[in-house]
Amino acid sequence: MNAHFVKTIALTLLVLNITACSLFSLTDREPYYPLFRDSVYTDDSVTIIDTNNVVRKAIKSNDYVNVSDHEAVNNNASKIFSEAITSSATSIKDIQNTYFHNGLEAVIKQFTCEMYASQQPANSVQLCPLSSEILNNNLQHLPFTKGLRVNHRLSVTVHDDSGDLELEFFLKSTQERSLNTLWGAVHELGNILHSNLAEESLVLTINMSVHKKNHLDTLWRALHHEPLVFFVILPSVDSILQSKNEAESMDFAYAEAKLLVVDSR
Question: Are strands 186-188 and 221-222 parallel, antiparallel or unpaired?
Fold first, then answer.
């Protein structure tokens, strides 16, 4: 065989091998959180990616709206919260209001702030909205993987002006719900065919409890037997951590946040 030809083949194989290794190194990264696509959502350990469920369908169909687009969120509320609304437990007006949007913004920004602060140097200072207290930073973990949020929920409560409506938004502690399940607080999306969302996107599983009382009551009444659950897509951990400070990280995450329109009707 011609020596020049052999050398050419060998060089070509070497280049292909280097290229393959480079591509592998770019995509083979350890996720910051368990993957949403592989999360378990049934008692018999069926994962999101295993079946054609409504959550996977919404992601594949790119069915989501910007959280900051209040009109678009309101227009899709009857789909996302259909179970509660059709049972007459909750009125659509309880969700299509300023208090809902304020509460959703607050829980997104609080999570983002805590995540951003956890990775900042010890000689810096970060304040987050819920307490306006200085947070612990320079941690060796992200929220809900270790630390405070393993045992304590991230919770935000808002009330209407009359004091008769209460909306509680919360991310369950890891002790309440493992991050290996769909109901865990936060995941990375992972690769889902036909989705336009970045694989590294974060997915928050947000719970909302609605309570009401009338002028004769002193106790709150839950309007649904279980919290209402919905999903918000956030930018990746790396992109959020590129922010100059916690205020910028919160504004960035909220501006980019998307509400997944899971049609449960």
Answer: unpaired
Burial class (CB in 10 A: 0-12, 13-18, 19+), 165: buried
Residue 13 has pLDDT above 60, yes or no: no
Contact call for residues 94 and 209 (beta carbons, < 8 A): no
Q: What are phi and psi of 126, to 5 degrees?
A: -130, 140
On the question of pLDDT at 9 being above 60, the answer is no
Task: Taking the CA atoms of 198, 171, 80 and 78 in sequence, report the sign of the dihedral they define.
Answer: negative
Q: Which of 28, 46, 30, 27 is nearest to 38 (CA)?
A: 46
Q: What SS3 class is residue 40?
A: strand
pLDDT digits (tens, 9 = 90+) for 139-163: 999 999 999 999 999 999 999 888 7
* Rounded distance between C-alpha atoms, residue 171 and residue 208, angstroms: 9
Q: CB under 8 Å to 208, separation ≥6 — which residues?
A: 103, 167, 168, 169, 170, 227, 228, 229, 230
Is residue 89 classed exposed, middle or buried when 0-12, 13-18 and 19+ CB atoms within 10 A define those classes? middle
Amino acid at 246: E
Q: What is the CA radius of gyration of the chain?
A: 22
Q: Report pLDDT for 188.
A: 98
Q: 168 and 112 in contact (C-beta within 8 Å)?
A: no
Q: Which residues pair with 228 in a beta bridge?
A: 208
Instruction: Specify which residues 158 forms β-bridges with.
Output: 167
